[in-house]
Write a structure and sequence with these properties.
Blueprint (H helix, E strand, L loop, with lengths): L1 H7 L57 H7 L3 H5 L5 H9 L2 H23 L10 H4 L10
Helix pairs in contact: 1-5, 4-5
């Protein structure tokens, strides 16, 4: 669901500004979505923030890594399409990866919440109806 919420932001390619297409982020055989980490495993500390959606991007593979692409992108609109505001970008430029991810999560959290609430069907039952549980004599296979 978090991937869908990130897609709902309308992410743009950091290099071209074009909308990222779902087929751009599929793995080689097309069976799953690949969301690159912003901060690589070599940098990841024990902090749980490194293992959250804040450290994932809906972006095609980029030589040099997605963090380099973020730092090279000068288009505020493109960066915001990935939930990277001026505060988060400043933290990344300073090299403070944990604070970058915290700032990005602070920007993403209300938008993720809005997305999830919009998709929830609070007034619908989450169990089968009683009628669907009734088995008639015609449906019983007597062997």
């Amino acid at each position: 669901m978090q991937t869908l919420a990130l897609l709902d932001l309308g992410p743009r390619d950091l290099r071209t500004g074009e909308l990222v297409q779902v087929n751009d982020i599929l793995d080689a055989d097309g069976s799953g979505v690949v969301l690159p980490s912003i901060v690589s495993k070599a940098v990841v500390a024990a902090s749980p923030i490194f293992h959250t959606v804040a450290n994932r991007m809906v972006h095609p593979y980029a030589a040099g890594g997605v963090r380099r692409q973020i730092l090279d992108c000068a288009d505020e609109r493109v960066l915001l399409s990935h939930g990277i505001d001026a505060r988060a970008l400043g933290e990344l430029k300073q090299g403070d990866h944990a604070r970058f991810l915290q700032a990005r999560m602070a920007w993403l959290a209300p938008r993720l919440r809005t997305f999830f609430l919009a998709k929830a069907r609070w007034d619908e039952l989450d169990r089968a109806s009683l009628r669907s549980l009734i088995v008639t004599d015609d449906e019983v296979d007597v062997a």
